[in-house]
Amino acid sequence: MKLDPFYVPTCHPEETLTSFVSRVAAMASRSARDFCLDMGLNFQSLCDGDQNAVGAFAELAGFDNGSFPGAILERTGDRSFKMNAEPLPRASLRRSTVRVCPHCIKADLECSADHERVRPYGRWSWMIASVRTCSKHNTPLIVAANDDNPQMLHDFSQHLQPFAEEIDRHVAEARDRMPSDFETYVQSRIKGQPSKFWLSSLPAYAAARFCEIIGATKIHGAQVMAESLSEDQWYDAGQAGFEIAAHGPESIRVHLNDMQRAFMQTRHAWGPKQIYGRLYEWLAHETGDTAYDALREIITEHAFNTLPMGPDDEIFGKRPVKRIIHSIHSAHLETGAHPKRLRKVLHAVGLIADEQIALSNERTLFRADDAKFYLDRIEESMSLKQARAYINAPRPVDRRLFEAGILKPWLQGGTDVFKNHAFAKRDLDEFLSALAAGTAPVTDEEKSLEPILRAAKMANCSTLEVVQLILDNRLGTIRTDPDLTGFLAVLVDPEEVKSLVRREDHGGYSLREVEQKLKTTTWVIKALIEQNHLEAEIAVNPINRCPQTIVKRDVLTAFMDKFETASSLARRSGSHLQTMMKRLDGLGVGPAFPKDQIPATFYALDQVRLADPDLIPAP
Q1: How far apart are alpha carbons 555 and 376 in whole angstroms?
Q2: Quick check: is 320 in a domain?
Q3: CB neighbour list of residue 445: distance below 8 Å, 6 or more residues apart
Q4: Is 110 in the same domain as 166?
Q5: What is the pLDDT of residue 129?
Q6: What distance in Å separates the CA atoms of residue 273 and residue 315, rounded to the nearest whole number?
Q7: Which of 130, 239, 336, 395 has the greatest count of CB atoms below 10 A from its CB?
Q8: 3-state class of 280 per DSSP?
């Protein structure tokens, strides 16, 4: 069965199926529902875009191939539809409110193609909630009727009749307004046209609503009441949000930064709800649509990277694996340290800027990784005196270890801000562990082992040298005294220490050794040195580390090749001392050094050989 063409008005490409059915029914002076009943059709099925119902109606209306040439809104679920394969949830549509462009309706009425009462038709774009402007006539859409009567629901022609009767007044009252880039974008998406914007990774309805919500927070603040906004305000919000979101995640993050800065000017307790406001409430509690997950991810990432959120905090059901940002307040809760001390320490080490000093504890932010070293130590901090007692080291070992950089304070003292150095328990534990690493308790057979202090004294070295040998893993024998703790419990082998701390030989003879070589007395050696007959110098003893006067070996050898004591010469020649001296005196050979300078008689060997070759054989 086909309708008489008289009852079939012109179908326009942008016309909705329900509008066209309503116009056909109006030609028959029937409501849409009654007309469908008369024709054996179900109007609600047509409103839902049921394929069988649409095919039956298309055949009835005489359309080729049994397909409707206009726009079909097809129901895909309880609250979901699609048009041109683009999903459209019910919230994104205006189906029970008849919105129109008065200029379009007037133009329809002036068209002579159809009977006057069915000339106006409904455009699909008028159903899209985010489209509020007619792109053809540059005017805002207005509400022609509220489609709240169940018998008239979706019956476009019947609803429009009162409005059409006053069309001239509505046209006269219409305002001028250009369609926004946002509205143009939304319509092009639903038409299936390609887009280069990042937003196009979202369904059109999700991109549209996100632009509106984020734009509302941009214009009216984070805590904007969405239900209080007018259609004109939503128009502005859509455009403002589009200008942000069209440039992608980075631009969105910039807006989130702005929201965070605005929050910093308030006195509210911090939290995603307080900072992101309506944007957070909407995505967290008003929609569970997974189409918005990409947006939730951007906000989640921003929150984790810029807010003091730890593993116990949550946003959109997600918790950070690792804390990135701390506040004074969150650091206080985590460490137990007093907020004032935290602020003082972190400001002193440069993690809190001068301009942050006046901010509240919740708003004073810093990077957790940068502060970890200080936060780990602040509550286990102790003075040098307390550190000495903790490691069980006698005075002044603690001071020497500190000055040598072995005991390192986590916070330097001696400043206007911090008078005393601060040492951390964990750093002291690390030092003690290094001293006793891999050791076993001392046994009864190891009586030769001594505490570090005693071993240092026996090896004529400093305590620091023994400690450094241990830390450098250069000692093979280290034990611990089970009756003691800490520093005093560590035992080492003094002989092993001696072998490692002995310094390089200075290459000379001590004065005692020179005495033995020359077979003379201390007074004689000192006189020779004082009178510059024997060259000496100061060197460090390789064993006891003390400065000592020495004579280089080659210097002493040269002296002994040139000079010899009278007693030594007499023994070597087999002569009696006095006889030899008288003989040399008779030959004109006297002492090499004046008696008033050197309290011993030395002869120059060259003179002796020349005067009496028999006394000393030639070399």
Answers
A1: 62
A2: no
A3: none
A4: yes
A5: 97
A6: 9
A7: 130
A8: helix
**Which residues touch 301 (CB under 8 Å, ≥6 apart)?**
none
Does position 506 have pLDDT exceeding 90, yes or no? Answer: no
What is the C-alpha to C-alpha distance for residues 233 and 226, in angstroms, rounded to an integer?
10
- 327 beta partners: 365
| Contact present, 3 and 24 (Cβ < 8 Å) | yes
Backbone angles phi, psi at 548, to 5 degrees: -145, 155
Mean pLDDT, rounded, for 320-344: 94
For residue 272, being part of any structural domain is answered with: yes
Helix (H) or strand (E) run with residue 523 in it = helix 522-530
For the chain, percent of residues with pLDDT exceeding 90 = 81
pLDDT at 423 over 80: yes
Closest residue by Cα to residue 198 from 316, 189, 190: 189
From CA 399, how far away is CA 390, in angstroms rounded? 14
pLDDT tens readout for residues 377-398: 998 999 999 999 999 999 999 9
Q: How many helices (H) and strands (E) does the chain have?
A: 28, 20
| Nearest in space to 490 (alpha carbons), one of 391, 603, 596 | 391
Q: Is the pLDDT of residue 1 over 80?
A: no
- pLDDT of 618 strictly over 70: no
Q: How confident is the model at residue 216 (pLDDT cuts 50, 70, 90)?
A: very high
Q: Are 556 and 517 in contact (CB under 8 A)?
A: yes
Helix axes 425-435, 463-471, angle to 10 degrees: 80
What SS3 string covers 406-472? CCCCCECCCCCCCCCCEEEHHHHHHHHHHHCCCCEECCCCCCCCEEHHHHHHHCCCCHHHHHHHHHC
| Residues whose CB is less than 8 angstroms from the CB of residue 375 and which lie 6 or more positions away in sequence, other chains included | 326, 331, 334, 335, 337, 342, 368
Is residue 506, in this structure, part of any structural domain at all?
no
Domain boundary pick from 120, 143, 173? 173
Q: What is the average per-residue pLDDT within 389-417?
A: 91
> What angle do helix axes 425-435 and 384-391 make, rounded to 10 degrees?
40
Q: Of 69-83, 170-184, 331-345, 538-552, which gets the smallest average pLDDT?
A: 538-552
The model's confidence at residue 548, banded by pLDDT at 50, 70 and 90, is: confident
3-class DSSP assignment, residue 113: coil
**pTM (predicted TM-score):** 0.74
Sort strands 537-540 and 547-552 into parallel, antiparallel or unpaired: antiparallel
Return the structure tokens found at 266. Answer: 């308030």
Cα of 407 vs its chain's centroid, Å: 29
Boundaries of domain holding 104: 5-173
Stretch 449-464: mean pLDDT? 93
Residue whose tokens read 């050898």 = 557
Tell me the C-alpha distance between 434 and 442, whole Å. 17
Place of tokens 């069965």: 1
Cα–Cα distance for residue pair 416/396, rounded to 1 Å: 26
Residue labelled with tokens 């239900």: 227
**DSSP assigned state of 290:** G
Q: Give the total number of structural domains in the chain.
A: 6
Percent of the chain at pLDDT > 70 equals 99
